[in-house]
Amino acid sequence: MRPTGPAAPLAWLVAGWGDLKAHPGIGFFYGVCFWLMAAALGAVFRARPEYTLSLASGCLLIGPFMAMGLYDVSRRREQGLVPELGASLTCWDRSLRSMSLLVLVLVLLVLELLWGRASMVVFAVFFNTGMPSASGVLNAVFNPANRAFVAVYMVVGGLFAALVFSTAVVSIPMILDRDTDAISAAITSIQVTATSPGVMLLWGLLIAALIAMALLLPGGLGLLLVGPLLGHASWHAYRGTVGWQEAPGANP
User: What is the pLDDT of residue 238?
Assistant: First the structure.
């Protein structure tokens, strides 16, 4: 584990911005992909909120593959190579053949399904009128009479969010970089979070804040910029927190 300080998350963002400026066309492609995923989720939530979790599960399966394309661009720049969109779209091929990425994605999917089930249990405990509509969910959250519900919902959601974040924060770029098995990558990611909890908490809050600001723009168009920026920055978060000791005579 590399030692990190409180300024590290900002340095990762700056490095990610450099990658995005160097290859804006590739970044725009992935930004559109992230925006389309968010737009689909928003449309389903407004029309049929009970299906939102199902679509979110599909996005969770696709998201890591999209993010790996951005990691590949940052990695190639780091190695002095010229990034290409075509190469970034297939960079996950080796990890998929070894099943490492697939196993990790399935673990994250199970965690998300458990998260969704826990959320439904919280709703069932506090409400007996069935699954509310999109407006009903918002009314329940912002109604001062439901303070106990909001507190429990936030605690449960926060625990699952912390578990998912700590498992995935550096594991996916680590699999791309070293084709590590999923269990080792997940354990390393959790170790990174446990070693620098304050820094990783700040990093998670920055990610959440940037995504929230992106979604506040009309149509959520801020994701066109924030999505690829965070993808590149996440690669630098991995490189800034995990170091490798090469065996004697091995190529780095």
Answer: 96
